[in-house]
Amino acid sequence: MCNLYTQTRNQEAMRRLFNAPIDRLGNLQPGEVWPDGTAPIVRTHSEGRELVHGRWGMPTPPQFIKGKADRGVTNIRNTGSPYWWRWLAPEFRCLVPFSRFAEPRPGGNQWFELREGEGAFAGLCTEWTSVRKVKDGETTDLLFGFLTCEPNAEVARVHPKAMPVILTTPDEWTQWLTAPWDKARTLQLPLPDGALGVID
Fold this sequence. Notes:
The protein is mainly beta.
């Protein structure tokens, strides 16, 4: 599963691309994003779409937390699980801008990027209070994770079980952020074969 990606766009490019005039990012540092790291996400605000920092890793189901800290769930596949139902409404959905993403393989990571156009992962987000790191104690964070689905041909060669759900058009971004779940859920599909370039 994807546990590393890059986000290299500047803030102005993201504001224009995702029609997000409200920018709460402050000083953005583009680069690699790892689990529990912070990264820009796009979500719906009462005044329009906004860019905010999120912390990668949704709350873990309690039965799977090991030790005193919740390390978070980065990739969400089974949206039919009752655990995720509370976060499927539009107010908990977000877009996760990315430039490239990696899947682990023997000897390192295999990187992928869109051959054409721009994209974002279909994400979920929530404000949550928990212990993410024991040394920090309890903190309240805006957490996010993104959906996965069956892989397309390029990703399946490296990771035969899953790939991130990638949305590539303004209509898809709007549908994900605003549509009722029975319509939004139809976006949980792999990209067409050939849509991703493989970066050696």
